[in-house]
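dumping this here before i forget
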Amino acid sequence: MSEIASRYGTIAAGFTARLAAVAPDQWSTQTPCTDWTVRDLVAHVVGTQRGVIARLDGTEPVDVDPNGDLASQWQAATSAVAEALRDPARAGKIVGGMFGEQSFESLVGRLVCTDVLVHTWDLARATGQDKRLDADAVVSSQTFLTSIDEAIRAPGGFAVKITPPPHADDQTRFLNFCGRAV
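structure:
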């Protein structure tokens, strides 16, 4: 298993655990993403997984049913990404996108892992769960985001960076970079 497949598995498992613990009355709870409720955030994460699989397969992404069983939709979507990463031909296939042409595995390692990681924290924060993220994943995502700082600040992207306190840990620096107040 590649490092990216392993990292994706770890990050996806973290999101899965937080998603499984969402109480029925928390779906309309506001998240740190000011325009999104828990339901909206989970639908976004599912949609991102489906979008990268569609890019890999050259198809249109399957629409997310935001009022449906989001846990099942997440499980199917994350399983499809993990399965593609286990297939060397699919993992190495070149796909395009907003970050240029790259292998599917690279796209997952950069964009998808970072998206799921940030939103794992958002979901945990909104629902009162454990907010601790995988330390190695935090470092990898911070490295990726730092290289595209200006691009992620465009409308619809990340909020303005927050200056972390002195002696902040890696997770706090990462989340502050993403515009999250910790």
